[in-house]
Amino acid sequence: MRLAAEHVEWRVHGHRLLDDVSLTVASGETFGLVGPNGSGKTTLLRVLAGLRRPKVGRVLAAGRPMRAMKPHEIARAIAFVEQQADTLDRLEVRQAVALGRTPFLSPLRPWSARDDAIVTQALTDVDMLPLADRLWHTLSGGERQRVHIARALAQQPSALLLDEPTNHLDIRHQLSILRLVRQLPVTVVIALHDLDQAMDCDRIGIMDGGRLVAIGPPREVLTLDRLRRTFGVHADFLDDAVEGRQVLRFRHAL
Ligand SMILES: Nc1ncnc2c1ncn2[C@@H]1O[C@H](COP(=O)(O)OP(=O)(O)OP(=O)(O)O)[C@@H](O)[C@H]1O
């Protein structure tokens, strides 16, 4: 599903948190959002998820203005893994992931064996099947994060929005979740702080002070000058002989 923002502005108490933001994410593309703390990544994801409805500009999902879509239509199409996601205290892991199926259930379409299979697959994808019967409050931060991602996967969305999904994860789960996300045949918008991880996205958008200041293939837009100006760091690109590509090496803060 193609996702687009057109000249979106978002203001809170007179502060412009998003300023004339336009982007189009192609169907099936993995689009990385990067930028310093407070640059507007989370705010933009919330707008793209339909949780914020901008008065200036518009958001389109598969060519339809999101403003005209009903909440359950958005919930069927778009899954959002937020940074500070809700707690699911009284639930077992499998029940928490099953919540991802909610938008598809109705009296005419009750829970079925297919829903069970989708939940099991989502748990397997994030390596949480062995903990499927555990209570939410007994999970570690990284395990909770993987449950949130599994719940989004169980939604089988056309677009998946992720806000720093690898935050609490150990390195093995960071790499496996990112590989999984890249391989999904859905549109993905993912906010990342790790710029090396962002290098694996199809394209990235760089946010700075509420504006999208650059969009394009990672190696084209993450220039050393951009790293200095937007991120305030001095860095170099080094050749990685094993993978035959360049990796970032950060030297110091400016
Ligand atoms: N309700 C609010 N009222 C005032 N300012 C807000 C509000 N919500 C967010 N902001 C500010 O808007 C800016 C953008 O916030 P946002 O969370 O989108 O940034 P971010 O790029 O996701 O940051 P981070 O990398 O730290 O997660 C920040 O300066 C934040 O303090």
Automatic annotation (TrEMBL):
<dbReference type="GO" id="GO:0005524">
    <property type="term" value="F:ATP binding"/>
</dbReference>
<feature type="domain" description="ABC transporter">
    <location>
        <begin position="3"/>
        <end position="234"/>
    </location>
</feature>
<dbReference type="Pfam" id="PF00005">
    <property type="entry name" value="ABC_tran"/>
</dbReference>
<keyword id="KW-1278">Translocase</keyword>
<comment type="similarity">
    <text>Belongs to the ABC transporter superfamily.</text>
</comment>
<dbReference type="InterPro" id="IPR027417">
    <property type="entry name" value="P-loop_NTPase"/>
</dbReference>
<comment type="function">
    <text>Part of the ABC transporter complex HmuTUV involved in hemin import. Responsible for energy coupling to the transport system.</text>
</comment>
<keyword id="KW-0813">Transport</keyword>
<dbReference type="InterPro" id="IPR003593">
    <property type="entry name" value="AAA+_ATPase"/>
</dbReference>
<dbReference type="GO" id="GO:0016887">
    <property type="term" value="F:ATP hydrolysis activity"/>
</dbReference>
<keyword id="KW-0067">ATP-binding</keyword>
<keyword id="KW-0547">Nucleotide-binding</keyword>
<dbReference type="InterPro" id="IPR003439">
    <property type="entry name" value="ABC_transporter-like_ATP-bd"/>
</dbReference>
<protein>
    <submittedName>
        <fullName>Iron complex transport system ATP-binding protein</fullName>
    </submittedName>
</protein>
